[in-house]
């Protein structure tokens, strides 16, 4: 697996990075294991939290530099990269401020005596992370686990080695000891060997269903805890009483943000028949207005896909969908220019036997479905292998809340797109994975919730 930086806006190779050897991996494991058995990991949390405070400050001071690295490496619009970098500082600060309270002992009433649950680190973790949010995905794992005392070995996606390297440097600069976070340019086989190693106690993966299945199987084989945050095929439901202009504006952003390469992007637009034509007309017009171009240009509104592979995969999916009866309402092709650009695309008339009905499209492709009522909307939303996020638009909040409760996903937003914040749990059900990241729930995934009882 070659680790290299290729600018997807130009397809120019910027830099290749040498892979880590098995000896490098062993050295990283040794350092992580030694740290886990030290007072730094197992002792007072107050010695770890200042690292997160310092990390947040370092990130805040370098927003522009970090954003530019991400935009050049994976094609995200520069304004969106800045937003991601700032969010990372917020996550680090959130755990610096709240982890002590989250990990405080919890008392339980019992006839057996005085009882409480303590929270202890479980040991070294293996994290496998994707390219689409090249800093945020790392911070979601680092911040809670550094606070808890779990050292982390991280394998980032092979197309974002510069982001991976700069993140690791920031963690060290913030004062984390050797072994707290190791960036490894390694193969899938090396990841499997790390998970099998007795010194490693868990695995966290964000990525594709296929990658998640492989990592989860290896963790299960060795009876180790894992968390998975995989794909999504989120619905964006627009009911007949919705504020259409607001729904259209947010819907366009929900599909085109990060060139559509977001696990929680709106992918299936489920429209009440009474407003379907009006919504589609406004939505199509807004898609046509997208300005394709260099992600570093502030006026660009749609950047490239992350790689040639991503472009080829998406092109193939759209062609297959049309071949199987979907109607191409707009776009549908790669843009004829240098780089990995794809036209904003809208597909309609997708039947259940079309492979597109169940697939996740990782790019600027919106699918349109029309329903007669709320029950049909819920049935369509739940007729999916995935269960990550979703959105419901209605001016009747009680009606929207009822629908949100019936949709089988880990997250639902009302009158907004599926979003993320440090204080809110993130994760899904079904083939979107299991476990939660961020919030108080995220820090509890990889801790030993140890019961202690004093017999009365």
TrEMBL record:
Oxidoreductase among keywords: yes
CDD domains: ALDH_SSADH1_GabD1
GO MF entry, a single one: aldehyde dehydrogenase [NAD(P)+] activity
All copies of domain Aldehyde dehydrogenase, residue ranges: 3-452
InterPro entries linked: Ald_DH/histidinol_DH, Ald_DH_C, Ald_DH_CS_CYS, Ald_DH_CS_GLU, Ald_DH_N, Aldehyde_DH_dom, ALDH_GabD1-like, GABD/Sad-like
Keyword Iron: no
Pfam families, sorted: Aldedh
Catalytic center residues: 229
Assigned keywords, A-Z: NADP, Oxidoreductase
Membrane-crossing residue ranges in chain numbering: none
Protein family: Belongs to the aldehyde dehydrogenase family.
Protein name: Succinate-semialdehyde dehydrogenase
């Amino acid at each position: 697996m070659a680790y290299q930086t290729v600018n997807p806006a130009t397809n120019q190779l910027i830099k290749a990075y040498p892979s880590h050897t098995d000896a490098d991996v062993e050295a990283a494991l040794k350092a992580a294991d030694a740290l886990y058995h030290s007072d730094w990991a197992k002792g007072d949390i107050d010695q770890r939290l200042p690292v997160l405070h310092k990390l947040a400050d370092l990130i805040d001071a370098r927003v522009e530099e970090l954003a530019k690295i991400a935009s050049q490496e994976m094609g995200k619009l520069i304004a969106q990269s800045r937003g991601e970098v700032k969010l990372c500082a917020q996550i680090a600060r959130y755990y610096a401020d709240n982890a002590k309270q989250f990990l405080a002992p919890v008392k339980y009433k019992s006839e057996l005596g005085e009882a409480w649950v303590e929270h202890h680190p479980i040991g070294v973790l293996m994290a496998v992370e994707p390219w689409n949010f090249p800093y945020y995905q790392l911070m979601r794992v680092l911040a809670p686990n550094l606070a808890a005392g779990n050292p982390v070995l991280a394998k980032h996606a092979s197309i974002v080695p510069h982001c991976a390297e700069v993140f690791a440097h920031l963690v060290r600069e913030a004062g984390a000891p050797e072994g707290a976070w190791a960036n490894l340019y390694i193969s899938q086989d090396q990841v499997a060997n790390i998970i099998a190693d007795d010194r490693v106690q868990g695995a966290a993966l964000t990525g594709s269903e296929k990658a998640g299945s492989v990592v989860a199987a290896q963790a299960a084989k060795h009876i180790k805890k894992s968390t998975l945050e995989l794909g999504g095929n989120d619905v964006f439901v627009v009911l007949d009483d919705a504020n259409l202009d607001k729904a259209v504006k947010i819907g366009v952003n929900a599909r085109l943000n990060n060139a559509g390469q977001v696990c929680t992007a709106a992918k299936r637009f489920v429209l009440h028949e009474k407003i379907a034509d009006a919504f589609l007309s406004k939505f199509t017009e807004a898609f046509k207005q997208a300005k394709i171009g260099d992600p570093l240009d502030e006026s660009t509104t749609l950047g490239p896909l992350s790689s040639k592979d991503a472009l080829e995969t998406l092109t193939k999916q759209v062609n297959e969908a049309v071949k199987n009866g979907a109607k191409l309402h707009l776009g549908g092709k790669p843009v004829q220019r240098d780089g990995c650009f794809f036209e904003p695309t809208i597909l309609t008339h997708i039947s259940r036997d079309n492979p597109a009905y169940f697939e996740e499209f990782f790019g600027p492709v919106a699918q349109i479905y029309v329903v007669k009522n709320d029950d049909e909307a819920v049935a369509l939303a739940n007729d999916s292998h995935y269960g990550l996020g979703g959105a419901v638009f209605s001016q009747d909040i009680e009606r929207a809340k009822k629908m949100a409760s019936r949709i089988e996903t880990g997250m639902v937003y009302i009158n907004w797109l599926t979003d993320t914040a440090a204080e809110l749990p993130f994760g899904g059900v079904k083939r979107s994975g299991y476990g939660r990241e961020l919030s108080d729930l995220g820090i509890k995934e990889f801790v030993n919730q140890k019961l202690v009882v004093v017999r009365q």
